[in-house]
Structures are given as structure tokens and as C-alpha cells.
Amino acid sequence: MSQPLHKGKTGANAVGFVILTIAALGAANFVGTRFFKRLDLTTEKVYTLSQGSKDLVKNLPDRLNVKLFMSEDLKPPFKQHAQFVRDLLSEYETYSDGKLKLEVIKIGEGDSKKEEEAQKYKVQKSNRGVVSANKFEIGSTYLGVGLDYHGEIESIPIIENDAGLEFEISGLIKQMTVKKRKIAFANSEGELTPGGGHGSGLQILSEQLKKTGYETTTVELKATIPQDVDAVFVIGAKQPFSDRAKYVLDQFLMRGKSLGIFVDGQTLQTPRGMMMPGMDMPQIAQNNEANLDDLLSAYGVKIKQDIILDMQNYIGPVMVGGQMLGVNHPVFLIAGPLPQVHQINTGLKAAIFPYASSLELIGEAKEGKGNVTWTKLAETSKESWRPQGPFVFMPTQRPRDMTIGTDKGPFPVAYAGSGKFKSAFAGKQAVKEDGSKVDGNVSQPGVDPMISESPASSRLVVIADSDFISDQYVNLGLRSGLQLYVANLAYALNIVDWLAQDEALAQVRNKGMQSRPLDQVKEGTVTLIKAGNIVGLPLLLLLIGLIRWRIRSSARSTAKL
């Protein structure tokens, strides 16, 4: 016979259970506030703060005040966006060790005091359309972030979605709290520069650099490059470099600084006398005489005078019938998948290189000797080839109608080198500003002694293409939804980070600017897939119906009353 329950004992057990539950929840909350952890099952960990962002706020030199302004009457999906922003900023606060202070300000209807504070922090009201109760409504609401550091205020005035938000926030924090590094673009030999304007320059790249805390400038390769410049880029040079220009670049690298050289081996030109109004004239590839062979060869790399074509290609802009159209053509080659063997490539899948040439390592670099470590950053696919004889560009020509030849890929198109470089002018004369040459080993008025070898901190990136980062192509990604061109922008920014030895935000940027191109398949495979969708699926449904009909017919014939 079971023992009768004792009411006092039962009540004590219940109270004890409640107390233990509350204590456990309190302990979990206490531990959670000090040891933050989130389970993020996404491939790129888009809901988890990147290590670069954690390090950035952990190493803040002083207190940073962050205010999240949001309207109380936000509707989906903006209500969910606001919660995401709040959670993200809370993570920043958690990892800052008390240096970042977050305040959430909810603005109600007609709350003029809080609206004035939002305006002070440069957060703006925005018209946001939402669908509710089977109707479309537009409401004017707040959702933005303001940052205050030593009285300097920066903001993300309007937040419309979650994409790339961590990159924006970390970029602003870095811009406000970290000493800016200076990036210079050479502009003396016909290169692309930030001041070239959209379509013909590097304005978009320059704007992105400024957003992430860099200072940009231009330099003529005549005087010695200033000491406060961390990296120099030579992009799209179309004129022969003078000995003085090469000497300036060489000595800059020898000082332990970094160079990025993006130069084409060949360029497309319409022969003189063939320009006819209203007609599409063929363009012929001609050698780009930039006169950089001796400089780069001394470092161990050579830009070949060719153009590479690839069956693994993308959409690019071409002129057809007097109109700019987007067509797939082998000149717009896809280099990918990118090998995950270097910080520049980390997290990126592929890049587009329009009208690219090939590279090769020479001398000690080819044999893997010397004091410079070379890493192949990108190469074409096995379906790429080098045209035999002069290449004539015809935008409407189909790849299957082209002569492929026997000189097939893959071909390297990008290399990164780091270590102790030997000067291209070692054992030669130094070049003065006026172009005259003097003994570089003898101290002379107005002439710095020649440096014959760099320290191990020197870095060099060489890419046999300059179009991939120009405004013309990046705009295709930003305005036309061709995401691989947006990935090109992320790729170029990663290169800048590595050359400037400032890789903190590379992982953050990749999360906000990632692309996932479909794998390239052969035309025969595409035809089979189409046939399977059009014919195979209906036949499969018919077969299932016949089998089911036979089973039911057999069951009826054997059934007994």
C-alpha cells in the first residue's frame, strides 16, 4: 500500500525546485554576460561578429559612444532589421571590455526631443514601404546608428537591410579611432587614378578606401615618394615608364614599403584608317609597351604580352551596333575557385579579369629560391587558351566558333610576393629627378644613397590586368546585379589591406560583399538538364501513375466479397 503524500513536504519540494530554477537561470545569465557565445550555423557566420571586429573594439584607445535610433512603430521586415542591429551592436559592446557604450533610443510619434537628438547624431527619417492587411503602406520612421568619439560624430543615417552592416559599422569605428594609413596612386604614366571619374578611373575604389579608414592621394614618379605613404599602386599604365619613374618605385619598395602593379600585357585597339561611322570595327590586340620588364624581372615576375581567353567566362560590356550591350565572351574570364592559400583570397570564391594577360615567375623565383616568397593568387581554368597569332576581338563571335589551338591553360594572372627584394638598380647608377645618372654608392648633394636590398617587410602584388577594378566594371556589379564585379571590389580592397599590412577588416568585408557563382558546365550538360526538365519529369510522373494504376487494378482483381 502506497504511503500518503505529505502536503508540507510536497510544498517544500516545489518551492525548492522554483528557487533552484531561478538560481540556475541567474547563474546562466551572469555567465552569459561575461562569456558571450552564439551558435551560428550559416556558412559564412553572418550572424557572428568577425575576429577583426572583436579585435577592433577590444583595442579601442578610448571610450566610444554608440546610439541606435529606432521608431517604436517599425513594421516587418524593418522591425526584424532593428532587432538584428541591436543584437549586433550588443556583441560589439560585449567584446569591447567596457570601452564601447551602447544606448538604444526608441522614438515615439511626436517625440521632438529624441528626434532632435537623432538629427544631432546624423540619423535621418526614411520613408519605408510595408505590406500589411493586404495593402501597401508607407510610413516615415527612424532606423540608424550614430557614433560619438571625442566629440566627432559619424553615422549610418538610414538602415534598410542587414547586408554588409558589420562591415559598415567596423569601417566607421576604424575610421574614427585608428590612425589612417595612406595609399598613393601613380599618375605620371597614363595610369587609372581616383580622379579619373566614373567609367574611366578608380573613384569607387577610392570611396571605399576612405570609408574603411584609408587616406588616398596621387603621386608623380619624379620626386621621392613621401615617407607617410604605406603603399603605391600603378594601375593601367599605357605609356613607357622612364628610368626615373622605375627608380622611384624601386627605392620605395627597398624602404620596406609595398607596391601593387596592375598592368596589361596587351591592349585592344582599332587600327588607324579603319574607323567607319555606324559600323562595328574589329579591335586588334597590340603589345602594351609600359617598359616595366626589367624592373619586374629583377623581382622575379614577368607580365607576358598576350591576351588569355577562357570558356569559363562572364558577362561584360561590349559595343554592338552603336549600343553598349552585355554579352558572355571568353575575354571576360573567371579566375576561380581562388586558392585559399593567402590572406588576400580568404573567403573569396572567384574574380573577373577582363582582357587579362598571363604572368610567369622567372629566375630564382621560378625555382623557389631567393629571399622572396611568391604565392599564386589567381589563375585561369583548364578551358583557357592563348590565341595563335594576333588576336582580333569580335564581340558577337561565339566561343565554339573560335580557334582554340594547343597553347592551353591554366595561366597565372596574379601573384603576391613578400620578403627581401633585390633592387633592380643594384650595381647600376642611381637616376636623379632630371633623368641624369650618378653613382648611387657615393653620397652627393640632393641624391639619397641607393638601397640595394629591402627589409623582409616589403610586399608586392602583380596582376596582369587593370580593367577588373575600374569604375566601368565595378558599376556593373553595383547597378546591374552582376555580383562577381562586386566581388572584384572586395578583392582589390583585400589587396590594399595586405599591402598596407592592415588586414583587420578583410574577413568582415568578405561577409558583406560575397558572391556565389554557379559552377561552369559544358553545353552538352546544359542540354541534358533542359531535356530532363522538359521531358523527363512528365515521363516520371506518367510512370508513377501507371505503376499506381497497375497496383490498384491488381488489388481489385484479387479482392473477394
Keywords:
561 residues; alpha+beta; Glutaredoxin; seven-stranded mixed beta sheet; five-stranded mixed beta sheet
Q: Can you characterise this structure?
A:
There is one protein chain. This protein is of the alpha+beta class and 561 residues long. The protein folds into 2 domains: 126 residues, Glutaredoxin (3-Layer(aba) Sandwich), CATH 3.40.30.10; 332 residues, no CATH class. It has 13 helices and 24 strands. The chain is globular and about 100 Å long.
Shape: globular
Report mean pLDDT, rounded to a whole number: 86
- How is the biggest beta sheet arranged? 7 strands, mixed
Unreliable runs, pLDDT <50, ≥5 residues? none
Alpha plus pi helix count: 13
Strand numbers in spatial order across the main sheet: 7-6-8-9-24-21-18
Helix share bin: 25-40%
Q: Assess the beta-strand content as a share of residues.
A: 25-35%
Radius of gyration: 31 Å
Specify the structural class. alpha+beta
The separation of the N and C termini measures 55 Å
Number of strands: 24
| Number of structurally distinct domains | 2
